[in-house]
Amino acid sequence: SGKLGASQVVPELQKIRADFKTLVDGAGGLKQFCAAHRELEFITRFGSDGFVQRRLAEVSHQDVVDVLLELIDKSSGKLGASQVVPELKKIRADFKTVVDGAGGPKQFCAAHREL
Questions:
Q1: pLDDT level of residue 1 (50, 70, 90 thresholds)
Q2: Please, what is the Cα angle at 64 between 62 and 70, to 5 degrees?
Q3: Could you point out which of 49, 57, 95, 115 has its C-alpha 20 to 30 Å from the C-alpha of 83?
């Protein structure tokens, strides 16, 4: 599933190489180790010891533009404004965050000449 329970991480690392525990401890523990490595993300959930997962690559505005252009092409050249965010979110939740950060679909499109 792409994630490992926090209590399992260090023992699993030690199975691979004994000194990996020293590296994690030297960083200040598992949370700090993950914070120092962009590829990893420590997630805390109520009632559990948390888990570690691979951090998704960050989404750029150009990623959203490219996907939006594909959606427009698949929709015979136009996509209803009310469909933009739901369709983008189906593909990747981060796309919605990028569009929302630009002030919504209208402002996002206004900022990108291709749209």
A1: low
A2: 105
A3: 57
